[in-house]
């Protein structure tokens, strides 16, 4: 058996030709390679410890336990998280009643629980999976390799959440990226020259030098473009931390309610003051195709295509789709540690962020339960929420329920339909949830070596390895063609690939000498042409196509692969509860934002059923690891509890 230089946890060699593949609900090890588990873990997962539990039985929407004893051994070796210790030490058994129940331990649900508990509201969180975090999770799919299995970068988390929840105190550590973007070209070059590439970071002078390879005019314009987008991001910022304008109060409320609702106009007025006379120009950015906006600024395709990736990532849209500019703005309005627009990796993977939020919540007394599936929201005879019912039949009473699940699951599956207006249910059922995303997590035994930036002699990470590496992104036409394939029901022939290597900055994620690679790829339709489903053959065929594309830019990549985890839109839906595989719960299109998220007249986290709140990405201000929906919903629920 061919061996390579990296070793898994415990020092056992990982076979180079081993392949992990998704099959049905779990993973199948096609070649056993580790010795038997040192602890009898298969019979002990009922303890519900996050560190050593797997789903105990097959359920609709649940994952089957991974086969192969080596995986159990690797999972059992995971550290016991601080939030679990705090919960256990506080005597965290299930109680029959709480002040508030949160459905789902995604990051927004955890944020909501942490805020409520700090406000003195006794809160319990129920999570369907064996691990907390929702899409912000770290999982050891291949022994020794820790993947941010779904979301993989951090920037959008609201600054006050870091401070209010004391996340650094609870273990959060970040690795800021600089440079942050790398787009290699495929070019024929003579002699010892290498193809060009576009490397962007925080140094504007260096950015201009990089852009000048393709256009001196664009290099001169780029600082003005950045300032233009920065001003728009500043204008949008105050809208994120408050509920949208209360249109119901304006239309139907009493005089007192209408006067009170005037306060909800403040963020809009502040945004207007920031934009000032330039408002028409900014309006175009939000409503026009991003290709039109970028064409007005720049002439070089590599720069335009690189910027356009932020306008389409996670969205079933083309750069030529009207309104794609807002998605770009959504991805540039964040920041880390005071650096506007900065993106970074969480040490230990995205699950470490969820663990820090959970630790903050449990330290103050919140209870978090894994493998506890909520199947129903209970309603009393007066039409008010009175708790939830778990899958095993347990009833848990509460004064309010906050749902971190999608609007579709919350209102169409968990809530008794007779308590919701027919028109409301119809609008929820019509939400656009189309997703283009297939996420592929890859374990490799060495760093990719790109033709445009060959590796150092000893294979140590170079600056571009920490970046978002954009492949098949030299021209906006390539992105549009990839989109058109999906519109025909076909996985893109030349998919857009965002390749990230978090282990380039965080060596704790992989065995020595090895790395974890995140491939965020699109476009892949939920249902294939002819009604075909995504079976294992289709998954592997698409992943092979993605790997073939990477191989062209970085020869030797395919030979470096130790294992892979392929998550198509149906897989993302089944495992993480993302409707249609949509990472935002529903599309971030203009007709599903602000006043209209998730539907018009119900954008303030409350719904037609008293005591039920939406606190996930399907609520304002939308998706991304932001936490704003959880924080805002918690405050809405707290205000209502105080008024009772």
Automatic annotation (TrEMBL):
Its main location: mitochondrion. Residues 333-450 form the Amine oxidase domain. The keyword Isomerase does not apply. GO terms for cellular component: mitochondrial matrix. GO terms for biological process: mitochondrion organization. The keyword Lipid metabolism does not apply. GO terms for molecular function: oxidoreductase activity. Keywords: FAD, Flavoprotein, Signal. Residues 1-43 form the signal peptide. It is found in: Mitochondrion matrix. It holds the Pfam family Amino_oxidase. Interacts with COX5B; this interaction may contribute to localize PYROXD2 to the inner face of the inner mitochondrial membrane. Probable oxidoreductase that may play a role as regulator of mitochondrial function. Belongs to the carotenoid/retinoid oxidoreductase family. This is Pyridine nucleotide-disulfide oxidoreductase domain-containing protein 2. The gene is PYROXD2.
């Amino acid at each position: 058996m061919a061996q390579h230089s990296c070793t898994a946890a415990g020092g056992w060699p990982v076979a180079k030709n081993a392949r992990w593949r998704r099959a049905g609900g779990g993973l199948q090890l096609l070649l056993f390679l580790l010795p038997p588990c040192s602890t009898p873990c298969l019979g002990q997962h009922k303890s519900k410890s996050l560190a050593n539990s797997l789903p105990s039985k097959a359920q609709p929407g649940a994952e089957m336990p991974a086969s192969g004893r080596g995986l159990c051994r690797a999972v059992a070796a995971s550290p016991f998280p601080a939030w679990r210790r705090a919960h256990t030490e506080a005597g965290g058994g299930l109680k029959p009643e709480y002040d508030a129940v949160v459905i789902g331990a995604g990051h927004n649900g955890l944020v909501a629980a942490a805020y409520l508990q700090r406000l003195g509201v006794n809160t319990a969180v129920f999570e369907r999976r064996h691990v907390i975090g929702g899409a912000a999770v770290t999982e050891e799919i291949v022994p020794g390799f820790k993947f941010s299995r779904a979301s993989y970068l951090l920037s959008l988390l609201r600054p006050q959440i870091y401070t209010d929840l004391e996340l650094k105190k609870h273990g959060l550590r970040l690795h800021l990226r600089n440079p942050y973007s790398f787009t290699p070209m495929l070019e024929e070059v003579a002699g010892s020259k290498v193809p060009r590439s576009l490397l962007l970071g925080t140094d504007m002078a260096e950015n201009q030098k990089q852009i000048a390879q393709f256009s001196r005019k664009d290099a001169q314009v780029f600082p003005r473009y950045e300032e233009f987008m920065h001003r728009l991001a500043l204008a949008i910022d105050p809208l994120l931390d408050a509920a949208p304008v209360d249109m119901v109060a304006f239309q139907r409320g009493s005089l007192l309610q209408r006067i009170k609702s005037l306060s909800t106009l403040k963020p809009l007025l502040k945004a207007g003051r920031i934009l000032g006379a330039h408002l028409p120009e900014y309006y175009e950015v939000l409503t026009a195709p991003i290709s039109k906006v970028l064409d007005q600024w720049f002439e070089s395709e590599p720069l335009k295509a690189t910027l356009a990736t932020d306008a389409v990532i996670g969205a079933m849209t083309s750069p030529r789709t009207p309104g794609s500019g807002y998605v770009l703005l959504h991805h540039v309005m964040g920041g880390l540690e005071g650096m506007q627009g900065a993106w970074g990796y969480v040490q230990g993977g995205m699950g470490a962020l969820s663990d820090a939020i959970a630790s903050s919540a449990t330290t103050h007394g919140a209870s978090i339960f894994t493998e506890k599936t909520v199947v129903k929201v209970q309603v009393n005879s007066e039409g008010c929420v009175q708790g939830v019912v778990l899958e095993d039949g347990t009833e848990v009473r509460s004064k309010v329920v906050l749902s971190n699940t999608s609007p579709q699951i919350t209102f169409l599956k968990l809530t008794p339909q007779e308590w919701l207006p027919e028109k409301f249910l119809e609008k929820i059922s019509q939400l656009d949830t189309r997703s283009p995303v297939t996420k592929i997590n890859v374990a490799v035994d060495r760093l990719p070596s790109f033709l445009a930036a060959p590796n150092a002699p000893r294979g140590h990470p170079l600056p571009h390895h920490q970046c978002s590496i954009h492949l098949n992104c030299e021209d906006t036409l390539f992105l549009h063609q990839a989109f058109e394939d999906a519109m025909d029901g076909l996985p893109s022939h030349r998919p857009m690939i965002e390749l990230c290597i978090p282990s380039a900055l965080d060596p704790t994620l992989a065995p020595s000498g090895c790395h974890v690679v995140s491939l965020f790829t699109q476009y892949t339709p939920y249902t294939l042409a002819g009604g075909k489903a995504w079976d294992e053959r289709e998954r592997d065929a698409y992943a092979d196509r993605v790997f073939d594309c990477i191989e062209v830019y970085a020869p030797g990549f395919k030979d470096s692969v130790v294992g892979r985890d392929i998550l198509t839109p149906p897989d993302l839906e089944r495992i993480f509860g993302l409707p249609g595989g949509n990472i935002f719960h529903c599309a971030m299109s203009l007709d599903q934002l602000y006043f209209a998220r998730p539907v018009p007249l119900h954008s303030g986290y409350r719904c037609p059923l008293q005591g039920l709140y939406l606190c996930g990405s399907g609520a304002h201000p939308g998706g991304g690891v932001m936490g704003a929906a959880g924080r805002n919903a918690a405050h809405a629920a707290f205000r209502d509890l105080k008024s009772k």
